[in-house]
From TrEMBL:
Keywords for the protein's UniProt record, in alphabetical order: Bacterial flagellum, Cell projection, Cilium, Flagellum, Secreted
Subcellular location: Bacterial flagellum; Secreted
Domain Flagellin C-terminal: 334-416
Gene3D superfamilies according to UniProt: f41 fragment of flagellin, N-terminal domain
Molecular function per GO: structural molecule activity
Domain Flagellin N-terminal: 3-139
Protein known as: Flagellar hook-associated protein 3
Organism for this UniProt entry: Thioalkalivibrio denitrificans
Amino acid sequence: MRVSTTQMFRNGISTMQQNQQALSNTQLQLSTGKRILKPSDDPSGSVQSLQFRSAIQQTEQYQRNGGMAEQRLSLSETTLSAVGEGLHRVRELAIQGNNATQTDDTRKFIAGEIRQILDELMQLANTRDANGEFIYAGVTSLTQPFSTGSGGEVIYNGDDGQRQVQLSPVRQVAVGNSGQEVFMDIPTGNGVFTVHDSAGNTGTGVVDAGSVLDASAWDPDDYTLSFDFNSEGELVYQVTRLDTNGDVVVVVPESGDADWDEAPQFVAGQAIQFNGIELRVSGTPAVGDSFAVVPSQNQDMFSTFRQLAEALEAPVESDADRATLNNAVNRALQDLDNALGNVLDIRAGVGARLKAVESQRAINEDVLLQLKTTLSEVEDLDYAEAISRFNMQQTTLQAAQQTYVQVQRLSLFNFL
């Protein structure tokens, strides 16, 4: 086979260029620390590398979500703690104001402090997070959740939704509670029914919150406990309700007889039982006095505070006024206890979610470590192998260069 001088020169140059390219590629690998510089270096490894990088970015986003959730839940827990402290203080003030040694002036001072705590409660209910979003507005977090109406009532402007944050491909956590749940939906009375005195009462009767003896026997309806004398001059009582036609139905006595001579005698402090519930009235109700026994409704904390302050601000000039105050404070204490229980339940839920966030973030850290370790195995350079290869390629290039120089000298003209 005939080999021309041009072909020899071309082969030599081509070999040197290939060696230079290989040496340059190895040098770039050593400088970047990466084995795969372009997809053609390792097609399957490049695909794996892209998949692992995507998984790492996604997990890092989950970690950022967890950090945001932890911050928001911690703020909520702190706020709920302050709300609980305010409720405890108002409860103390209610008991203090109900003491018979208090005067109208001292009760007004107590009511003034309750109104200050009410203002603080409004501020806590409108708490914002670091992003300026209201934490108790539900999903509409840019809308101020609570405002005051023209009559002094508090209006909730948010919704009942809960924002969810993704912590992993299969796990979400709610980062807050709606203001409706925290501040508004507080059951009155004992949670099943509530008892309150009528505005026109003139006696000294004071009713307790009552209790449920048999939930299955309870028939939710509006009942009226009223008092009168029988023909023998004894104070007796009846429990009545209205039927669908508006007619009075006697519940106590069980005979359904509306004759007061058939009604049971009233004994202060003795249990009055009907339809699976019982309640007790202390003091001495006057003839015509009555108490309403109605199913429990929801009432917001703000109304509880305001009603308690108004009751303490009312002058006490008679025993009947004292009984009215006692009844109002007793209702407020029950409602405050319900609000405290609700806050504690929500705080427990927030604490559980905080624990879940911490746990998931720890899991994500382990996942990130595993992903980065596997990615390193796929694309990172083996420096020992690369340095050995670099030295070999360098020697090969030098040999090719020296050989080319020697071949270049082989010319027929040198022998003429």
